[in-house]
Design a protein that fits this description.
3-stranded antiparallel β-sheet, 104 residues, 3 helices
């Protein structure tokens, strides 16, 4: 099979881009570790496992099509997040976190 100028086959160039998130240990958050192209969701999970957990780094993998991610822009930061500033009950300032709680 021939390759294009970026080294991808014509078939693979049409595959959707997936973003990969891996959780390292139980109780930790998933962290973005990279991207990959795959023909479908199941192939994306298998390829993510092979590429990003080769040394048993993860206990959970999430893959999501990059086209489905919706995000705010840095320009919207102040007006978008401003309403949460006046809701002090959302901030953990009214109680002490016990020393035995490792990831909060």
């Amino acid at each position: 099979m021939t390759q294009d100028s970026q080294g991808e086959s014509p078939v693979r160039a049409g595959w959707p881009l997936y973003e990969v998130f891996v959780r390292g240990k139980r109780g930790l958050n998933h962290v973005h570790v990279g991207s990959l192209h795959a023909a479908d969701d199941q192939m994306a999970v298998r390829h993510a496992r092979d590429l990003y957990t080769r040394r048993n780094e993860g206990v959970s993998i999430w893959v999501v099509r990059a086209a489905h991610i919706v995000a705010t822009s840095p320009d919207e930061r102040d007006p978008f997040f401003a309403p949460s500033g006046d809701k002090v009950y959302r901030h953990p300032t009214f109680y002490a976190i016990p020393d035995g709680v490792p990831h909060m």
